[in-house]
Amino acid sequence: MYLALPAGRDGTSDAAGAGIDATSPMTATPTPQSRFRGCLLGGAVGDALGAAVEFMTHGQIKQRYGRHGITAFDAAYGRTGAITDDTQMTLFTADGLLRAEVSGHDGGAVSPVVTTSQAYLRWLYTQGDATAESLPLGEPGWLMSHADLRHARAPGMTCLSALVAMPSLGEPAVNDSKGCGGVMRVAPVGLYRWHECDQPDVEARTFDLAAQLAGLTHGHPTGQLSSGALAVMVLCLIEGATLAEALDAAKRCLNVREHAEETLNALARAESLASRSRWARRNAIKELGEGWIAEEALAIGVYCALVASDFREAVTLAVNHDGDSDSTGSIAGNLIGVMLGVEAIPDNWLHTLELADVIREIADDLFEYPDWRGASVEKRARIDDKYPS
User: Fold this and answer.
1) How far is CA 253 from the centre of its chain?
2) Which helix (H) or strand (E) holds 306?
3) How far apart are CA 112 and CA 241, in angstroms?
């Protein structure tokens, strides 16, 4: 694999904080497939943990759940373990990327930005938007067959309005929003590009694809660049990089792009606060923001992954604050899940999580799709039906 990771993995970077030492001989190394599952299921668990408190202040959370805040799934949207629009859109991101792959196998030259923009229109349809039926939705496919996805879970108004107004498939949004609705859904891009790690430009291509996908709904550069940074971190973490190394890779990509100051500054604050062993963690998150905008959500997710000792601590810390708890929980879950693998996620959370089997299956498809090229005629027919090109 080519990934240009910095030399040395001794955990000496300031970004290491007091958190997980993934290089310790006592830490079992997850398989790549476990990391894929951990990334998507971890993000969904963080999303579901934060779903019940998304619009509450930290004071209100403590008043309801006690001084430690919410530490277990609570009822949201009529059930325990419910996912929100964050995980819904993450799944449709994966669906769009896999359809691009199927199209390529069939001799097509469809851009993953185009296929994923169409997947987002199918997500829009699941939200009950009356105008969506007139949009170019394409074939429904396997993901759309799950009725439990057809629920509005507090979708972002920017995402809804930008998709309705999209002039043609793949066209970027015409707005100035840097809300976190782009960054919270792009982790599958890092998984998708991992199969190309032998290519010297894989980091840049991963970054650019995630930024373009975020740009379908969020026109502000920071919303796009923060999304690129998260996807690159996921890419590097699959390879076994430390989080400090993954951050370095993301910053390399940011440093050669215009308008990256806000994202770079937010990540620098997260690293600095993580290195202060005596700094109260709730105060640190408050200093990073509330997570409603992209660079703040990314920074909070990164900070929680840096300082936590395990998966449970990372996502619990990420949702107990004033702000967009499900999105920050989702980003922290993506990062810590890909670092530690699916085995690190508590079983009771996985057993209760809505659509856990669907999430696991789409993670496996992202892991396995290069093998589809040599699949039997029968298997190819099933794949084509699942992800029609």
Assistant:
1) 18
2) helix 294-307
3) 26
Q: How far apart are CA 56 and CA 38, in angstroms?
A: 27
Q: 């792959």: which residue's tokens?
A: 101
State the distance between the two ends of the chain, measured CA to CA, in whole angstroms.
Answer: 29
C-alpha distances (whole Å) from 182 to each of 87, 97, 192, 210, 338 are 12, 15, 17, 9, 19
Confidence (pLDDT) at 266: 98
Pick one of 1.10.3540.10, 3.40.50.2300, 1.10.4080.10, 3.40.228.10 as the CATH number of 31-386. 1.10.4080.10
Output the pLDDT for position 27.
59
Task: Please write the tens of the pLDDT for every residue from 302-334.
Answer: 999 999 999 999 999 999 999 999 999 999 999
Return the bridge partners of 79, or none. 76
Domain ranges of the chain: 31-386
Burial class (CB in 10 A: 0-12, 13-18, 19+), 332: buried
DSSP for 247-273? HHHHHHHHHTSTT-HHHHHHHHHHHHH
Strand partners, 30: none
Quote the CA–CA distance of 294 and 88 in Å, as a whole number. Answer: 18
Q: What distances in angstroms separate CA 181 from CA 62, 83, 118, one per listed residue?
A: 26, 15, 17
What are phi and psi for residue 353, nearest 5 degrees? -65, 130
Give how far the C-alpha of residue 331 lies from the chain's centroid of Cα atoms, to the nearest Å.
Answer: 5
Distance CA 178, CA 193 (A): 24
Tell me the two tokens of residue 150: 């057809």
Query: How far apart (Å, rounded) are the C-alpha atoms in residues 163 and 153?
Result: 17
What length is written for the chain? 389
Helix (H, G, I), strand (E, B) or coil at 12: coil
Amino acid type, 305: A
| Structure token pair of residue 228 | 């690129």
Residues 6 or more apart whose CB falls under 8 angstroms from that of 356 comprise 41, 44, 350
The Cα–Cα gap between 265 and 268 comes to: 5
Would the pTM count as exceeding 0.85? yes
Cβ count near 71 (within 10 Å):
15
Q: How far apart (Å, rounded) are the C-alpha atoms in residues 136 and 373?
A: 28
> Are 212 and 228 spatial neighbours (Cβ–Cβ below 8 Å)?
no
Cα(40)–Cα(16) distance, integer angstroms: 23
pLDDT bin (cut points 50, 70, 90) of residue 15 is very low
